[in-house]
Design goal:
2 copies of one chain form a homodimer. Chain A is an all-alpha fold. Chain A has 9 helices and no strands. Chain A is 78% helix and 0% strand. In chain A, helix 1 crosses helix 6 and helix 4 crosses helix 6.
Amino acid sequence: MFIRTEQKAATRARILETARKQLERDGYDGTSIRSVAGEAKVAAGTVLLHFRDKQDLLHAALFDDLETTWARAREVSEKKMQKKGSLERALTALARAFFDYYAERPALSRALLRESLFAAPPWSQRFAAQVAEVHAHVAQLAGAAKSRGELEADVDVALLGAAFFSFYYFALMAWLQGGHAHPLQFFERLLRQHLDGLAPRRKR
Amino acid sequence: MFIRTEQKAATRARILETARKQLERDGYDGTSIRSVAGEAKVAAGTVLLHFRDKQDLLHAALFDDLETTWARAREVSEKKMQKKGSLERALTALARAFFDYYAERPALSRALLRESLFAAPPWSQRFAAQVAEVHAHVAQLAGAAKSRGELEADVDVALLGAAFFSFYYFALMAWLQGGHAHPLQFFERLLRQHLDGLAPRRKR
């Protein structure tokens, strides 16, 4: 039984890795359950034991990758925060980890955004939970910045987290549509304007 | 000749109106060239004389509507700016016009975002030109706010325009995904935080 579970996990991992490779190389439309099965050297029925359909396979492939990216990004952003003590640096480090991931797999990223922005359950819930975790982390970093006096005491940190995602998605979309070659720089400029503040009349 | 051109335009308009109705009622997958032709009382071939395929029809239906919405929104936001003299009010009025349009056609809006975010040429260029026009308008409103002393003299108005779109798209996506019942309120809160500024150390 133990061996069978191990084998099953190994097969699942091999299918996912093959799917990632094909999606990046051949695009979403050029990838099929059959082509993935062929290259992973398993029967199409085996792929369908693990994944309901092609979209399920795409979501699983990306979700796993994003989990790994997020675990690394969380660590890096926390270190930046402790060492440099700047919210801007911490948030930039967080965004950079994700942008770096997408830059390595532009075709896969395009498919991800297109398919996952309007994913159906259960994937919509899983992606939403992932976003909620990152959002909570951003709010936590902002809270720490507040207690250091880096932000006004009345700043809504949850709202700041939403602004972080606004800039992150906008830079990502602009990059995927070919409008901006450097999404991180664009993100950084937007974030800086947000953190700097614009209204001269505000009491300080 | 004149009558034929008139007739052609009237047929095109009737096809578009029927398409909008069907897309809203039956969704993107439930709409076809054939079903639109049937309800508009024209041959399927006639629809295909005007539109290449279903996606072309969707894009044309939305593009025309957005043009109308935008013309109205531009006027309202300019009036707000002249009368109330507040950039925040003007930008909120601008966003409200679009959110109101989407709220009237939620299913169509969902299809729009899904299909048009990654539209191929020529639609990608047309949508990009539309966004560029709105962006220029936002920058112009921000420039006027600057000369009235409502914004710091060194504020990058083009970047402020990008922030406007970041919040607009994020609120729109959150609404379409069921995360926020009131996209305009969410947009307003994000915009206010951006305009208020967050960093207490900034020299004033």
